[in-house]
Amino acid sequence: MIKDLTIGQFYPAKSLLHRLDPRFKIIILILLLVFIFIADNFLSLALTVAFVLTVLLLSKVPLSMYLKNLKIILPILIFTMLLNLFYITDGTVLFEYWIIKITTGGISRSIFMSARVVLLIIISASLTYTTTPNDLTTAIEKLLSPLKFIGLGGAVHTMSMMMTIALRFIPTLVEETEKIINAQKARGADFESGKLMQRIKAIIPILIPLLISSVRRAYDLAEAMESRCYNGGKNKTSMKQLHIKAGDIISLCVSLLFCASVIVLNLYF
Questions:
Q1: Tens-digit pLDDT profile for residues 177-211
Q2: 96 FRET partner, CA 20 to 30 A, in 66, 112, 125, 233?
Q3: Quick one: which of 163, 166, 178, 186 has its CA closest to 209?
Q4: Alpha carbon distances (Å) from 269 to 105, 153, 173, 262
């Protein structure tokens, strides 16, 4: 299942989202993440779902790539639904047996929480699918550039570089983990049967080689950056300059209109 994790991968395509300025994509993503949780009735939630689905269609990224990420969080999603379904006791009681009580409030809360988790994962993945790591680094650094006026210019570049490297190496670590698991299975390791403690102990032969491989990759990356005279954000220029286009402004305005619509639906419906 771990091979289904595709967050951090860039999917090359010719779409509206790929052409957008990465700074605007990050701003729009933050707005969507906030208003996914602000939507508190079914109309505003339905509007949010429709808007996110529109974004997915505009990205021209296969829907299967988004669904693969949901397979990873499926156990957490089911647990969240059941927890809200049985824990929330507000509203009309629909079913009651012993200590189990299902109410309209519990069903509503479980639907809202599961939908929010799904939307959160999907819309976050759309950013990395449509933005290269270099563009993401540049955008983060540009958005946080005002911090240089309080002496944090170097820290901004370091933080954006660390975030981008972490996203870049997620697919690599997933692939490495899959290779280690297959190698251990070929040696007779069993990861699917036995008691809980036995399964936890079976993970150790995976974690140790993965840790060693990660340290080795980090060391190689540090040597490569040092051999290229990398010195952080000091006097750094970008090979690709970011320019605001009409499409960026229109996309931001549409996103703001969506946010305003969610607020109106929350207040009057």
A1: 888 888 888 877 777 776 767 777 777 888 888 88
A2: 112
A3: 178
A4: 18, 46, 46, 10
Do the beta carbons of residue 36 and residue 29 sit within 8 Å?
no
What is the distance between the alpha carbons of residues 34 and 119, in angstroms, rounded to a whole number?
11
- Number of Cα atoms under 13 Å in the Cβ half of residue 228: 8
Query: Six-digit token pair at 219?
Result: 């060391």
Could you give the CA distance from residue 139 to residue 130 in angstroms, rounded to a whole number? 13
| Sign of the torsion angle spanned by Cα atoms 234, 237, 238, 241 | positive
Handedness of CA 234, 238, 132, 140 (dihedral sign): positive
The count of residues in the chain is 269
The CA distance from 220 to 225, in Å, is: 9
- Model-wide pTM > 0.85: no
